[in-house]
Automatic annotation (TrEMBL):
It comes from the Bacteria. Residues 119-216 form the Protein NO VEIN C-terminal domain. This is DUF3883 domain-containing protein. It holds the Pfam family NOV_C. It comes from Chryseosolibacter indicus.
Amino acid sequence: MLKNRSEGSIEFKNRDISAVLAKIGQPYVRGYLPAYNYQKQLLEEVVFSYIRKKPEAEKTFQLFAESAPTPKGLVFEKMLEEMPKAEALLQEPEMVYRSPVKVNYIELEQANKSVGQTGESIALEYERWRLVHAGKESLADKIEWVSQTQGDGLGFDILSKNTNGTDRYIEVKSKKLTKEAPFYFSAFEYDFSKRQRSSFFLYRVFNLKAEPKLFIANGAYDEFCNMKPTQFKGSF
């Protein structure tokens, strides 16, 4: 059907489509990282028109956000990956008033409890493996899944240990998409990361529909990722 298009041009077109979807807060095409240097007006209208004519498209987005993750195995030796470069991070979804989809399903997926708990349990098991692998079994026994034992609202999910015995505060952000997908954190979580910057670690667990992967970032959020406010509080 596309005899006059090279494989490269088809790949870039799929990446452009991914960019349009990510821009409006939707899951993007698996295997095609969004590329934002597309012809915005023309391509957006084509994608939006397709979604309007295919109401089942939004149902697919919703199913993605609400479905449980299906990890296919934990291989700790191969789990850790490099953190994405800052310029590769996906943009926060923009306000596109003509968008046919009004729900940010990328954000909704992060709020999915099954996704969050699966990612946290994987991070917990990875931590135990990391310390045991480093010959620190006694420290591995001290790990606490605080979001389960003490509840949410502490600013982190797992209290672990560094190999020297000091505390390691771990916040887990989980995703079925790739590691470049945007994630969301509260003002309280941001403040905690600043107060505990040397001991605070983000564990970004991703690819939860296949073989789970993770990358680790240390420091306050504004030191390792791009930040953009998405909500405001008004008062009189």
